[in-house]
Each structure stands twice: as C-alpha cells, then as structure tokens.
Write a structure and sequence with these properties.
Layout: E1 3-9, E2 15-26, E3 35-37, H1 39-42, H2 54-62, E4 66-68, E5 77-81, H3 88-115
Antiparallel strand pairs: 1-2, 2-5, 3-4
C-alpha cells in the first residue's frame, strides 16, 4: 500500500507519526511530461513581443528552455493523500499542517524578495 507519513506535534510537545493512504496523480506543474519551462525564462510572464524573436519562439516551444520538473523530479506523477480512504481527523491535521507550511514558505519568499530588493 502506498502511503504518506507525517509528524503531528501535539499540544504537549509530543510528536506522533501518522500514516495516511496515498495514490499517484499526474503532476499539475508539468502535466505528466516530467519537464517544464525554466521559471527564470517565463516566471514573470511573457508578452507577444517576446515571441517576435523567431529563435526565441522556436526554442521556447521546442523545449530549449525546459528543465526537469521541480515538483515531480521528472517522473510526471506525484503522491497525494487518498482522502476517500484516510481517517478524517488525521486528514484534517495533515491539511492544517500543509496549509501552515505553505504560509511559512510564502512568508520566507516574501522576506527574501524584500531583502534582495525584489531581485529574487
């Protein structure tokens, strides 16, 4: 059985390991291809004017600027919790933990951008 393990810290500071059932899904970032355009190329958006350069356009659509997918490491699939089979209390705890982690990551990125003068 495929599973995801996560650690829950209780109010008393005790850490408890939990196992949730999981299943494979197609990666949202690369849509199963295992690669995507390097965000340093199109992460801030591109305009029609960018594609007026024929060499850039051909390279962009031809995969010249592709990198291995940051999310799935090139496999084209990601492991996700199988919510239908998961214990609902554990699923809620896992989702709270993931949401908190996403907020922390966003705060870290914002802090780095501020410290770098927006050049991240």
């Amino acid at each position: 059985m495929t599973s995801i393990v996560f650690i829950e810290e209780r109010d008393d500071g005790e850490e408890v390991e939990h196992v949730l059932p999981a299943r494979w899904e197609i990666c949202d970032r690369c849509e199963g291809d295992g690669h995507h355009v390097n965000p340093s190329i199109d992460g801030n958006g591109l305009t029609a004017e960018d594609f007026e350069d024929e060499d850039f356009r051909e390279g962009y659509f031809g995969g010249r600027y592709d990198v291995r997918c940051f999310t799935c490491s090139g496999s084209g699939k990601v492991l996700v919790v199988d919510a239908e089979r998961a214990d609902k209390r554990l699923l809620e705890a896992y989702e709270r933990q993931q949401a908190a982690r996403a907020r922390w990551d966003a705060e870290d990125r914002a802090t780095r951008r501020m410290e770098s003068g927006g050049r991240e």
